[in-house]
């Protein structure tokens, strides 16, 4: 085996190992000031997705994208909301957003909360079905 091939394998192994250590619910930033929340599935339905939060003056714009988990001909409609607390210990609902299907998108402009107010590390975005929360993601602290 050549030295070049060995180096390539080491680099690939390093990338694979590094990706394995990323925390669940990791967050990223897109445009300056925006925050992306990754929605982790909470049930066997495996519904997940992302929410892009962007500041809009005294308000926040929310762009929700849900991915279907289990295939279905008639995807359920889910309620998306901002909640105080954590995914494991949710508190009161701060804001209800538009309903969205599991294979769709929703965009809410001029939400009632300021992005800076929900970036303290103690707010989550929940996706709730008829009887339970099916996905959740922590809004990252500043």
Give an account of the 3D structure.
The structure is a single chain. The chain is mainly β and 142 residues long. It has a single domain (25-138), classed as Immunoglobulin-like. 13% of the residues lie in helices and 46% in strands. The chain contains one helix and eight strands. It has one helix at residues 3-20; strands at residues 35-41, 48-56, 59-67, 77-85, 90-101, 105-111, 123-128, 133-138. An eight-stranded antiparallel beta sheet has the order 5-4-7-8-1-2-3-6, with no helix packed on it. A hairpin with a 6-residue loop joins strand 1 and strand 2. The longest helix has 18 residues, at 3-20.
Number of domains: 1
Please list the strands of the largest sheet in the order they lie side by side.
Answer: 5-4-7-8-1-2-3-6
Number of helices: 1
The helix-strand sequence is HEEEEEEEE
Helix content: 10-25%
Q: What about the largest sheet?
A: 8 strands, antiparallel
Cα-to-Cα separation, first versus last residue? 47 Å
CATH class: Mainly Beta
Topology:
Layout: H1 3-20, E1 35-41, E2 48-56, E3 59-67, E4 77-85, E5 90-101, E6 105-111, E7 123-128, E8 133-138
Antiparallel strand pairs: 1-2, 1-8, 2-3, 3-6, 4-5, 4-7, 7-8
């Amino acid at each position: 085996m050549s030295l070049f091939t060995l180096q390539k394998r080491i680099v690939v192994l390093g990338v694979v190992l590094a990706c394995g250590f990323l925390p669940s619910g990791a967050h990223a930033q897109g445009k300056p000031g925006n925050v992306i929340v990754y929605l982790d599935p909470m049930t066997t339905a495996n519904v997940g997705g992302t929410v892009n939060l962007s500041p809009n003056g005294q308000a926040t714009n929310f762009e929700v994208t849900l991915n279907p988990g289990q295939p279905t001909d008639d995807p359920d409609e889910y309620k998306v909301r901002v909640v105080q607390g954590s995914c494991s210990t949710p508190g009161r609902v701060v804001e209800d957003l538009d309903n969205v299907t599991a294979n769709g998108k929703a965009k809410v402009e001029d939400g009632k909360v300021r992005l800076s107010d929900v970036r303290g590390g103690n707010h989550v975005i929940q996706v709730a079905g008829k009887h339970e929360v099916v996905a959740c993601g922590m809004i990252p602290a500043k």
